[in-house]
Amino acid sequence: MKSYSIFILSLILIFPLTIFASAEDNIVEIKVPFQIKTKKQVAFERIVPIELSKIFRPYGRLPGIKSTNETEKWIKAGLTRKVEFEDGDTAIETLDQVNPSHDFSYHIESFTSPLRFLANRIEGEWIFSDTESGATAVHWTYRVYLKNTFARGIFNLFVKKDLEGMLRQASEIITQDLEG
């Protein structure tokens, strides 16, 4: 009953906002900056092809990643893979751009999870830079392209916090792995 009340309240509060929203208002950006005590080239070469099931563990209401169907090493633009989550849902991920030792980007779409009702796609971008101490600064950005302002409200209420936590958790696992 409590979750139903929260849902009704969210409808009342969010629906009026949909009248005045633009497409740009329906993009939620999550930034996860972190540092790794290793050279930029090493960080880049280990992170781009990393096994997703190793870093994306369950968090809050979000399932972890079980597997992908990669047929070759995930290091060149244009590659596509199916990502399977621990609850059986899937999504399609495409590697869009790879600039060795500097940055890479990808997009995720074709969700079979309830996210399909809220989002059209997710775009991810990783940028690597040297720090004065010899470490690597990593700037990881997730952009969630939501279907409308109502979907943005629901996403912000029920998904965003868990997604932010899952991404932070993944960055911590990556850091421990590369520094360990």
UniProtKB/TrEMBL annotation:
Matches recorded under InterPro entries: START-like_dom_sf
Listed name of the protein: Polyketide cyclase/dehydrase and lipid transport
Organism: Leptospira ryugenii
